[in-house]
Design goal:
Blueprint: H1 2-5, H2 7-27, E1 30-35, E2 40-44, H3 47-63, E3 78-81, E4 87-89, E5 92-94, H4 96-107, E6 112-116, H5 117-120, H6 125-128, E7 131-137, E8 146-151, E9 176-181, E10 184-188, E11 195-198, E12 205-206, E13 217-222, E14 225-230, E15 236-240, E16 247-249, E17 253-256, E18 259-264, E19 276-281
Parallel strand pairs: 3-6, 11-12
Antiparallel strand pairs: 1-2, 4-5, 6-8, 7-8, 9-10, 9-19, 11-13, 13-14, 14-17, 15-16, 15-18, 18-19
Helix pairs in contact: 2-3
Length: 282
């Protein structure tokens, strides 16, 4: 976005968006502690308020998708919610709870909300009904597994996103997804069926690596986006553009936008990591 719009226009867009999101959180009794470039850290007195605020944000972005500069991929939020004590020093917050929330956000796919057993236990029955267990997962930097839940907030997920207005809103245009690995090229568009990648020779894109599951992940065109869904034992690391921090998928999914790398079964820096290049083109 910064490359496409320029630093000044992109920074202005991000600042405006963070301001609007901050107002929504405040309406649900949340307090924005700090803005982290393209994200926010918010604290709430009630887990129920935190969940309601995050669902509100996701539904707003689904109902009226926002595209920076009126073109390109719409804004997607990855959200993690954790409950526990925090230590506040000079207006900033620290502690294991803060770190866990950040790791959950890293783990979440686009337009997803992830939380833990700590939050689940505090919610009213009507809110608990929207949570789906993903089982125990090891969050980066933690020795013990956390029981993770996904918040099922979406309605009409498979419908194409339509956007009105001029300054931030436009129609999401169709393109195609190109994958490159080991000298093989695979293309996916809106008319293609679901593609698979994995160690199995029957996979659309076969990756012969012991860290890769036989049927590791699938890719498909859904609701106006290219969606990568992990179905593996060890997870999938997705690196978008020049971002150093990956989106880590473990039985979850994310949208693929722009270009980058998909690394099944390990991190990008691991020895002989199977690096799959992807690019979304118009």
């Amino acid at each position: 976005m910064y490359e496409r719009l320029g630093d000044e226009a992109a920074s202005r867009f991000v600042n405006q968006l963070m301001g609007v999101l901050g107002q929504v959180f405040e309406q649900h009794h949340g307090r924005v502690v700090k803005v982290l470039g393209d994200g926010l850290f918010v604290v709430f007195e009630s887990e129920g308020d935190a969940l309601a605020a995050c669902i509100n944000i996701q539904k707003r972005l689904e109902g009226k998708p926002i595209q920076p500069g009126g073109t390109g991929a719409p804004v997607q939020m990855q959200i993690g919610i954790e409950s526990g004590e925090v230590v506040e020093i000079d207006g900033d917050c620290f502690g294991d709870t803060v770190n866990s929330a950040a790791r959950l956000a890293d783990l979440a796919g686009a337009a997803q909300i992830l939380t833990t057993e700590h939050v689940f236990k505090t919610l009213l029955p009507v809110q608990k009904a929207s949570l789906r267990s993903m089982g125990p997962m090891y969050l980066r930097g933690r020795a013990e597994a956390s029981h993770v839940y996904r918040v099922e907030w979406q309605t009409g997920r498979d419908e194409d996103a339509t956007m009105a207005g001029r300054s931030m809103f436009a129609v999401n245009h169709e393109g195609f997804l190109q994958l490159e690995f080991g000298g093989k090229s695979v293309r996916l568009d809106s008319r293609s069926g679901k593609l698979s990648l994995g160690r199995s020779p029957d996979a659309t894109l076969s990756v012969n690596d012991p860290r890769v599951s036989r049927m590791h992940a699938t890719l498909e065109w859904r609701g106006g986006h290219f969606v990568l869904t992990d179905a593996s034992s060890y997870g999938t690391w997705v690196y978008l553009g020049n971002q150093g921090e990956p989106v880590v998928l473990r039985r979850t999914e994310c949208y693929l936008v722009g270009s980058g790398q998909i690394v099944p079964g390990c991190e990008q820096a691991d020895d002989n990591a199977p690096l799959i290049a992807f690019s979304v083109r118009n």
